[in-house]
Amino acid sequence: MIDRKGVFSFLLITFAVTYLLEGILILSGFRVTQIPAVGGQFVVMIVMWVPAVATLITIRFITHEKVNSTGLRFGPSWKPYIVSALLIPLSFILIYLLTWALGLDQPDWRLTSFYSVIAATGVDMSTAPSPTLLLIALFFSSLVINPFVNSILGMGEEWGWRGYLLPRLMPLGKWKAYLLLGVIWGLWHAPLIMIGFNYPGYPIPGIFLMILFTTALSIYINELSLHYKSAILAGWIHGVINSQAYGIWRLLFANTNPVLGGVSGIAGILALFLSGYGTIQWFRRAETGLPKSREVTPMI
After folding, report:
1. Does the residue 5 lie in any domain?
2. pLDDT of amino acid 212
3. How far apart are CA 163 and CA 159, in angstroms?
4. With contact defined as beta carbons under 8 Å apart, do 150 and 240 qualify?
5. Positive or negative CA dihedral for 148, 149, 152, 155?
6. Residues with Cβ < 8 Å from 280, sequence gap 6 or more?
7. Is the Cβ–Cβ distance between 108 and 249 less than 8 Å?
């Protein structure tokens, strides 16, 4: 049985607080441009912890559950953390190679668009590092440094989505739960989509595309968080994904049509659906064909 009171409480708090904060931000003039206002970015980072706050309020005052019922544990080993840190960047490489191969964009090796945006702010670009050096540094950072920073923010979302909500939707069955969570997660982003987040120029179609994107992306995160019973792992995966999604690739492929190319466009969504389905099959074969003591390696 689904805990309707708990789920409803969690969703009400999460959406009400998020939409209120982002509504105030939008009415104050904030827009998601190439270089969003720093104050607005700070509010958006705070909003990422709203699902975690909603989880705490719900289990403390509504359902009276213990914190350990929300997957707030590291998991049995480091293996899925390391595997995800390697496979996710590889999946981004493949997605953007696909974007390039389909003629949806081509890499801007000289970072012309990025340097132009920075120069437009009045920054003296005469001492700027070479594009090659900057790309190497950014890619290294996206692999080694950024995941640890972004996973702190990602944990705020994932403690809610994967730690609290997903297990309580599972009585519906895996695919119904996955689909419903994907829709909810996508709609949660709606106010920011309306002002240019991920799909600039496509405020209404962007909401539907975001739902497809979050549903596709959820499959991999759902599988690992349920298998290893860890919301912390989900937060780490979220951080690794964000490190790639908002790092080097947006600079290198700056003119990609947001609807068709890139990780959140149709090309990326299809690739994520296929990789998510592959992960399900990987776990299924491993669990039926290997001794229970053997740990399985996911794919993305």
Report:
1. no
2. 98
3. 4
4. yes
5. negative
6. 219, 223
7. no
For 16-73, the pLDDT digits (tens) are: 999 999 999 999 999 988 778 889 999 999 999 999 999 999 999 999 999 999 999 9
Collapsing DSSP to helix, strand or coil, 294 comes out as coil
- Please name the residue that has the structure tokens 């298998």: 227
Contact assessment for residue 299 and residue 94, using Cβ atoms and an 8 Å cutoff: no
Q: Whole domain around residue 170: which residue ranges?
A: 73-289
Look-up of token digits 């982003």? 189
Tally of domains in the chain: 1
Token readout for 113 is: 């668009």
Hey, what amino acid is at 102?
L
Q: Using CA atoms of 168, 171, 175, 181 in order, give the dihedral in degrees to the nearest 10.
A: -20
Structure tokens at 269: 């969504």
When mean pLDDT is compared across 12-21, 115-124, 192-201, 227-236, the lowest value belongs to: 115-124
Whether the predicted model's global pTM rises above the 0.85 cut: yes
**Per-residue b or e along 17-48, where b marks 16 or more CB atoms closer than 10 Å to that residue's CB:** bbbebbeebbeeebebeeeeeeebeeebeebb
In what helix (H) or strand (E) does residue 254 lie, and over which residues does it extend? none
pLDDT at 292 over 50: no
